[in-house]
Amino acid sequence: MRQCLGCRTMKPKKELLRIVRGADNAISLDLRGKASGRGAYVCAGSSECLKRAVKSKAIQRALDTAVPDSVFDDLAQEIAKGAGVNE
Ligand SMILES: [Zn+2]
Known about the structure:
By secondary structure, this protein is α+β, with helices and mostly antiparallel strands. The protein contains three helices and five strands, in the order βββββααα. Zinc ion is lined by residues 4, 6-7, 9, 42-43, 46, 49.
């Protein structure tokens, strides 16, 4: 179980999207949930959670670094597609 940074609800990993900061400090989406590094999670099924997490800078805090807008764009796209749900 991991916590969504938008709604602060604990959920199984498969219901969440993972953003990971890799060893090279690059920020990326970890759609398979297997990449090593520091991770942050938001609900895969809710664009509202992403918006909240962005607004509160919770993802930046969790990863302890700045997050490029392109990563948030990718997240929004994955949420729109319903990624992470029903896997
Ligand atoms: Zn959430």
